[in-house]
Description:
Distance between the termini: 34 Å
Strand content: 25-35%
Shape: globular
Largest sheet: 4 strands, antiparallel
Strand order of the largest sheet: 1-2-3-4
Structural class: alpha+beta
Amino acid sequence: MTAVIIRPARVLDASKLADILAAANAQFDWLPDLYTSAEELNLIDDMIGSGWVKVAVVDDVVVGWIARKGTEIHALCLRPDMQGKGVAAGLMRDAQRLAKKLGLWSYQANDHATDFYGKAGFVEIQRTDGAGNDAHLPDIRFEWRKETV
């Protein structure tokens, strides 16, 4: 695999990002289908238009993306075949590079994500029963703060 290039998402990336989201979510039999493909595409398009989204590109192919507004990460998504290859780590390092702190929510059932966020320096702050998220699935709040030397 060649180097991972991180760049701002473009409007023309939206359908690729929606496909990546669908493939990533399809891995989880516990995750309900909450939105139509059109609704997901509209949401992604809105996030791109707001400047929240960066993509990971490998060999000229978009393979993952992250959506961050200020200090909050709203999504981190990879093609399933790209997991464990440093793509998510590259996206996260880019998000952390200029930030002093970041936060995000993840489903408790997503053990892979929980492990990843721990390795990226995030600390578990809170667990809930999921009443506050659209899927009503138990979730975890993670936060990261830049180390000061």
